[in-house]
C-alpha cells in the first residue's frame, strides 16, 4: 500500500505538473475501475470465506456471546457515536453535513476489516481469547455494518417521509439473520458433499462453488452475502468437517489454496486502494474532516467498548488494557472504501470518500505497523 501510494503521487505529478500524456492515460484507467463493484461483487466473497476458513471455529463458538455483543451492538453504538460527533464537528467548522449523511459515514467506517485484521494479528503475540474476540468481531461486524449501511442508504434515497421503523427493522433482520441461516445451510451442504467423496480436486471445486454460487444466491434472496460467507467458511474449515470429511491430502490442498487466494487478493486490494489516491477530489476542508474523522473513529470505538463492558461486564470480561488493544487493532480497509465509493452521486459523496480514505490510510499504515509494539505494552499482565 505504501508503494502504490508513492506510485500514485508520482503519477499525479507526471500527469498534472509535467502533463505527460501516458500518465494522464493511466490515471484515466484507474478512475474507470469500479472499485466498489470489484471488491463487493467479486473479491469480498472469496476473501471473507478464506479468512473464516482458517479461523478456529471451536474458539469462535466458545466466545459467541461476546462476539455477538461486540459485532452487533458495538457496530450500532459506534455508528451513532461517529455520526453524532462528526455532525457536531461539521457545524463547528461551518461546513454542515446532514446528520443522516454523517450516520451513513459512521455505518461504513465502523466495521473493522477482517482481511486487514487477520493479516496483522497472525504476527502478534496476544492472549488467545482476546485474539478470538478480535477476529470474531472483525468477521461478523463487516456483515452487520453492510446491512446498517444499506439500511441508512435506503432511507436517504427514499426520503425521511417514507421511513418506517418497522420496515427498517424487518429489512435488517432479514439481511442479517437470513445471511447467517443461509451460511449454515451452505456449510452443512458443503460438509455432506465433501464427506461423500475423496478426490481433492473435486472437493476444492466444491468449496469454490459454495463461495461463488452461494454469494449470488444470497444476493437474489436479498440476504447478507458477507455473513453467509463467514458462517459457511467457519463451518467448512472447522475441526469436525476436517476430521470427518477431509483426507490429509484434501486438507493440505484446501488450506494452501485458500491461503494463496487470501494472500493474492489481499495484495491486489491494498494495491488498488493505494492507486486510488491519484484520482481523489481534494479540498482543504476534506483534509480537515479526514484528520478529525481519525480521532472521532478511534474515540467512538473506545467509548463503545467502555459502554458495552459496563453493560455486559461478565460476558465480555475485558480489562481496560484489552479494550485499548481492541481499539487500536480495529483496522479499517477496502470494505469501508468500497462502501463509500458505492454511494450514488450526491453533493456529500466526495467528502465521504476522502474521509474514508484518510481513515483507512491511517489505520493500515499507522495502526497496522505499530500494532506489535502496542500489543507488547498493553497485553502484558
Structural write-up:
The protein has 381 residues and is mainly α. The protein contains 18 helices and no strands. It has helices spanning 2-16, 21-32, 35-53, 57-62, 64-92, 99-109, 114-121, 128-158, 165-195, 200-220, 225-236, 239-245, 248-275, 284-311, 313-316, 320-328, 334-342, 349-378. Helix 1 packs across helix 2 (21-32), helix 3 (35-53) runs antiparallel to helix 13 (248-275) and helix 7 (114-121) packs antiparallel against helix 8 (128-158). The longest helix is centred in the middle third of the chain and has 31 residues, at 128-158. The chain is globular and about 60 Å long.
Sum up the structure in keywords.
381 residues; mainly alpha; globular
Task: Summarize the structure in short.
By secondary structure, the chain is mostly helical.
Amino acid at each position: 500500500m505504501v508503494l502504490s501510494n508513492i506510485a500514485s503521487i508520482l503519477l499525479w505529478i507526471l500527469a498534472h505538473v509535467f502533463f505527460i500524456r501516458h500518465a494522464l492515460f493511466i490515471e484515466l484507467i484507474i478512475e474507470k475501475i469500479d472499485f466498489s463493484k470489484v471488491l463487493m461483487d467479486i473479491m469480498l466473497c472469496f476473501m471473507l470465506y478464506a479468512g473464516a476458513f482458517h479461523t478456529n471455529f471451536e474458539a469462535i463458538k466458545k466466545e459467541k456471546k461476546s462476539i455477538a455483543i461486540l459485532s452487533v451492538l458495538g457496530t450500532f453504538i459506534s455508528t451513532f457515536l461517529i455520526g453524532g460527533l462528526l455532525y457536531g464537528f461539521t457545524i463547528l467548522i461551518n461546513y454542515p453535513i446532514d446528520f443522516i449523511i454523517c450516520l451513513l459515514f459512521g455505518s461504513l467506517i465502523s466495521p473493522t476489516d477482517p482481511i486487514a485484521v487477520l493479516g496483522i494479528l497472525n504476527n502478534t503475540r496476544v492472549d488467545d481469547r482476546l485474539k478470538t474476540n478480535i477476529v470474531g468481531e472483525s468477521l461478523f461486524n463487516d456483515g452487520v455494518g453492510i446491512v446498517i449501511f444499506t439500511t441508512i442508504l435506503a432511507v436517504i434515497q427514499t426520503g425521511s417521509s417514507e421511513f418506517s421503523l418497522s420496515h427498517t427493522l424487518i429489512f435488517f433482520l432479514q439481511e442479517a439473520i437470513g445471511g447467517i441461516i443461509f451460511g449454515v445451510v451452505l456449510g452443512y451442504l458443503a460438509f455432506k458433499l465433501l464427506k461423500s467423496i475423496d478426490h481433492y480436486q473435486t472437493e476444492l471445486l466444491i468449496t469454490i462453488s459454495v463461495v461463488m454460487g452461494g454469494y449470488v444466491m444470497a444476493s437474489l434472496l436479498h440476504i447478507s452475502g458477507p455473513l453467509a460467507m463467514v458462517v459457511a467458511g467457519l463451518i467448512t474449515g472447522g475441526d469436525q468437517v476436517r476430521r470427518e470429511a477431509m483426507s490429509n491430502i484434501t486438507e493440505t490442498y484446501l488450506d494452501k489454496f485458500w491461503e494463496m487466494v487470501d494472500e493474492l487478493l489481499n495484495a491486489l486490494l491494498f494495491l488498488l486502494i493505494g492507486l486510488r489516491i491519484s484520482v481523489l477530489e481534494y479540498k482543504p476542508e476534506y483534509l480537515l474532516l479526514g484528520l478529525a474523522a481519525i480521532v472521532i473513529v478511534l474515540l467512538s470505538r473506545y467509548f463503545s467498548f467502555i459502554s458495552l463492558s459496563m453493560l455486559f461486564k461478565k460476558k465480555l470480561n475485558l480489562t481496560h488494557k484489552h479494550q485499548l488493544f481492541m481499539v487500536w487493532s480495529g483496522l479499517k480497509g477496502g470494505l469501508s472504501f468500497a462502501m463509500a465509493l458505492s454511494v450514488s452521486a450526491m453533493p456529500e459523496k466526495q467528502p465521504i470518500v476522502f474521509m474514508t480514505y484518510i481513515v483507512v490510510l491511517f489505520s493500515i499504515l499507522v495502526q497496522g505497523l505499530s500494532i506489535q509494539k502496542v500489543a507488547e505494552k498493553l497485553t502484558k499482565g
